[in-house]
Amino acid sequence: MVLIDPRNTSCTCSVCGHCEKNNRKSQEYFSCLICKHTEHADINAARNIRFKAAINRPIAV
């Protein structure tokens, strides 16, 4: 198990990484103001969490 801080994952674009509160148009709608990527907000946040987990792998000794 990898613990991930979910802060800003719902307002960060999973394609270009742009983070802005206005990217989150509503509870379920995400639209990046920079690259115009659109997706369900929960799916976008899940992609960001998966990416953070992939780069923060625990070191097993």
How many H/I helical runs?
A: 1
Q: In order across it, which strands form the biggest sheet?
A: 1-2
Low-confidence stretches: none
Beta percentage is: 5-15%
Overall domain count: 1
Q: Mean pLDDT, as a whole number?
A: 91
Given the C-alpha coordinates, what overall shape results?
Answer: elongated
**Largest sheet composition:** 2 strands, antiparallel
Helices and strands: which structural class? alpha+beta
Give helix and strand order, one letter per element, not per position.
EEH
The radius of gyration is 12 Å
The percent of residues in helical segments reads 10-25%
The count of strands amounts to 2
What is the first-to-last residue Cα distance? Answer: 15 Å
GO molecular function: DNA binding
Domain Cas12f1-like TNB: 2-49
Protein name: Cas12f1-like TNB domain-containing protein
Keywords: DNA-binding
